[in-house]
């Protein structure tokens, strides 16, 4: 039996039941694929259900405010995905009349849609013969064919795509693409794969040569950058605080946070002399208390954030600038924030 037939047979017997597998609606397939980029299915599923309930059509998503989209996305990470999702929904709804492109090349033109996502939508929704290549597919192909080219190199991306093209089932590309991804997720796992009961183990080069744990090969990650975040959490008359929206193209663009001082060696004394703090004080009647004894370490893909929260109690503040705003304690929960701040808010502003 051919490679693609074995995988499809395995898939039809072992696939997990997922809501996006019960439809060929490109809007819902697109939503699921964007959400599952760099995200485990178990984590992404509740977000998919929330989005499809809140925004059942692309028009609903397009007409939403960005803050609504970011709030619903909160905790899923890689927030540029949410902003691109919203931008594409607006484009599809307002420029394309709510109709998604029906082919790989035109899908690639959508913001936030790359080769993998375009291939998935085109094959699943329109039965176009274009192979998907994601992390799971890289692993299956590199092990089965013994390919040692790094999967995150230019040469590797090209080599694996060309290999995937030769393997796809031309009669059933939708099931084949879903099969090889599911096979990598459940059977050919990153660690301790089920090689003994693998339906294609007889032809697996990695199993024959004892290289299963060595493949796929990846180039070393870029160096992790350390950053030191110090949040000033104002408690004004025990009922209001101050927040601001992040701008620029760095992490968490468009999300909200407390006034921030980024400094590795910040102390209570240096906070008092910092311009961000001084500009908010109307008098000297205040109290500063660190909320945690040790900094919280929040790990992102290429940087680790060492984060402290300082509670600043005072009766009032001077006039604040346009970036910052005062909000009631009970209103803080409504703003989209990074999960790091979301956890703090749930604990402090009960």
TrEMBL record:
The keyword Metal-binding applies. It catalyses: Hydrolyzes free adenine bases from 7,8-dihydro-8-oxoguanine:adenine mismatched double-stranded DNA, leaving an apurinic site. Transmembrane segments: none annotated. Coiled coil: none annotated. It is an enzyme of class 3 (hydrolase). SMART domains: ENDO3c. Residues 35-186 form the HhH-GPD domain. The keyword Magnesium does not apply. Belongs to the Nth/MutY family. This is Adenine DNA glycosylase. It comes from Aquimarina gracilis.
């Amino acid at each position: 039996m051919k490679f693609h037939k074995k995988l499809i047979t395995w898939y039809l017997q072992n696939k997990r039941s997922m809501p996006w597998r019960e439809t060929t609606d490109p809007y819902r397939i697109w939503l699921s694929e964007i959400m599952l980029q760099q995200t485990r299915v178990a984590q992404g599923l509740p977000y998919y259900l929330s989005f499809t309930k809140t925004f059942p059509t692309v028009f609903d998503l397009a007409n939403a405010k960005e803050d609504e989209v970011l709030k619903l996305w909160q905790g899923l990470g890689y927030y540029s995905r949410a902003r691109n999702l919203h931008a594409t929904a607006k484009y599809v709804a307002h420029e394309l009349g709510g109709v998604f492109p029906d082919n790989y090349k035109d899908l690639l033109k959508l913001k936030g849609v790359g080769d993998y996502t375009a291939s998935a939508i085109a094959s699943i929704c329109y039965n176009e013969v274009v192979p998907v290549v994601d992390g799971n597919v890289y692993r299956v192909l590199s092990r089965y064919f013994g390919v040692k080219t790094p999967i995150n190199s230019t040469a590797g991306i090209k080599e694996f795509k060309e290999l995937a093209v030769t393997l796809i089932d031309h009669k059933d590309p939708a099931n084949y693409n879903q099969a090889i991804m599911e096979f990598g997720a459940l059977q050919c796992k990153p660690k301790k794969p089920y090689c003994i009961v693998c339906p294609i183990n007889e032809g697996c080069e990695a199993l024959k040569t004892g290289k299963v744990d060595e493949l796929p090969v990846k180039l070393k990650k870029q160096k992790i950058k350390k950053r030191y975040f110090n949040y000033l959490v104002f408690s004004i008359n025990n009922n209001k605080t101050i927040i601001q929206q992040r701008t620029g193209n760095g992490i968490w663009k468009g999300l909200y946070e407390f006034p921030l001082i980024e400094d590795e060696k910040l102390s209570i004394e240096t906070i008092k002399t910092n311009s961000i703090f001084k500009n908010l004080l109307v008098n000297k009647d205040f109290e500063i208390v660190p909320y945690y004894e040790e900094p919280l370490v929040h790990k992102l893909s290429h940087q680790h954030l060492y984060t402290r929260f300082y509670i600043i109690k005072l009766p009032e503040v001077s006039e604040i600038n346009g970036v910052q705003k005062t909000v009631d304690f009970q209103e803080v929960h409504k703003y989209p924030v990074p999960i790091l701040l979301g956890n703090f808010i749930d604990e402090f502003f009960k």
